[in-house]
Design a protein that fits this description.
Shape: globular
Number of strands: 11
Number of helices: 0
Helix content: under 10%
Radius of gyration: 13 Å
Order of helices and strands: EEEEEEEEEEE
Length: about 120
């Protein structure tokens, strides 16, 4: 059974940075893509970035290139999301998800979800 545990959220001032962690179990990093998503209350969940062995890192939020960096530590079965230059509009619940094929295309129905971690950015 695939299990994902996100952590690292909190209250951060605008302009600051944050590192979110997603601890994964029940899967192999050789076969799975692991991605970060975010959801603002009342809005649809959106993909942020994904990492897979075959593709490396993939950024879903093209408009935010340079602020979001995804990385993995295979020895720790953990995927990280580094967010720089945080903005109030980055306030959201951040989720990690995993599926057993490439990052692209993203097929939402196949995503195994972890619980979210709340990021609040104050202005």
């Amino acid at each position: 059974e695939v299990q994902l545990q996100a952590s690292g959220g909190g209250l951060v001032q605008a302009g600051g940075s944050l590192r979110l962690s997603c601890a994964a179990s029940g899967l192999s990093f050789d076969d799975y893509s692991i991605a970060w998503f975010r959801q603002v209350p009342g809005k649809e969940r959106e993909g942020v970035s994904c990492i897979s062995k075959s593709e490396g890192s993939v950024l879903y939020l093209d408009s935010q290139k340079g602020r979001f960096t995804i990385s993995s530590d295979n020895a720790k079965n953990t995927v990280y999301l580094h967010i720089n230059s945080l903005k109030p509009e980055d306030t959201a619940v951040y989720y990690c998800g995993a599926w057993d094929y490439r990052c692209l295309p993203l097929l939402w129905e196949d995503v195994n979800w972890g619980q979210g971690t709340l990021v609040t950015v104050s202005s």
